[in-house]
Amino acid sequence: RIIMYGKNRSLLSRLLQYTRCLDTKSLPLSVAVEGPVDISVFALNYVMEAIEDRMQQIESYVRTLDQDAFTNVRLDVKIYDPDNVMDEVTENPVKLIFANLPAGSRISEYDRGLIIGFVEDRLEGSLPDLLELIDVSYAGRLSQYGARLLQNGAYAQSLPLLIRIRGPSDISDFVLPYILQAIGDSIRALEDSLKTMNGEVYTNAKVSADTYDMDNIDVNYDPPPSNAIEVLEEEIEKLPWWVWALITILLLLFVCCCIWIC
User: Fold this and answer.
1) Alpha-carbon torsion (73, 79, 84, 88), positive or negative
2) What is the pTM of this model?
3) How would you write the pLDDT of the chain (262 residues) with one tens digit per residue?
4) Which of 164, 160, 87, 89 is nearest to 120 (CA)?
5) What is the 3-state secondary structure (H, E, C) of the chain?
């Protein structure tokens, strides 16, 4: 009994949806098999024969993913040396767009950290074995359309992220589309998490993911905290007693002067 398992099974079907204008592209797969030890030496040949026997079916399936890109696709299967697969680190610009926020609201640094942690957890759980998540970081202020007022009076704000992935150079062109797909599959869970995190700001929030131009990032911009009013109130409460006494005396003098004038 030979079983092909692992996340690599869905890698081809997910990634090829986004391929455009490519003449020839290779996709290295790692196929794990399970079976008796005495026939393990024949496993690779069996896998190759099984794929070759079903090549027409695979081609037909690939065409259904995108008829424009894969109308004339022809697939072939070959053996490769894993030692020859070069790893490459790609930097993938992905922005999360938060729509229907209260007017004037701003994503705080604390919320930003929780959102980045959510994205990291989801990517680590969904990336195939061929890809390794290095980190997810805040890219900086997006100079174009970072925040805007919607027609319904609500607010939309973008959170630009930089996602670094290590994987075979052969599939580097597929990494960004795969990330967008993985995040898109988790949008509903992110929206629910935001409502739990801060219902006042994110109750009606709608989240989407897209790419952005890294040249539009101002890395030197430090956004002000969204809880600036709360910070100000805390500072007022920390004023010494004699300041409050002086304010009270001045108010009494002002009232007395008004009465005397009248």
Assistant:
1) positive
2) 0.57
3) 333 333 444 444 444 444 444 567 777 777 877 878 777 778 888 888 888 999 899 888 888 877 777 788 888 888 877 766 667 899 999 999 998 888 777 888 889 999 999 999 999 888 877 788 999 999 888 875 545 554 445 668 889 999 999 888 777 778 888 899 889 999 999 999 988 888 888 888 899 999 998 888 876 655 555 444 344 444 445 556 666 677 788 888 877 777 777 6
4) 164
5) CCCCECHHHHHHHHHHHHCCCCCCCCCCCCCECCCCHHHHHHHHHHHHHHHHHCHHHHHHHHHHHCHHHHCCCCCCCCCCCHHHCCEEEEEEEEEEEEEEECCCCCCCHHHHHHHHHHHHHHHHHHCCCCCEEEEEEECCEECCCCEEECCCCCEEEEEEEEEEEEEEHHHHHHHHHHHHHHHHCCHHHHHHHHHHHCHHHHCCCEEEEEECCHHHEECCCCCCCCCHHHHHHHHHHCCCHHHHHHHHHHHHHHHHHHHHHC
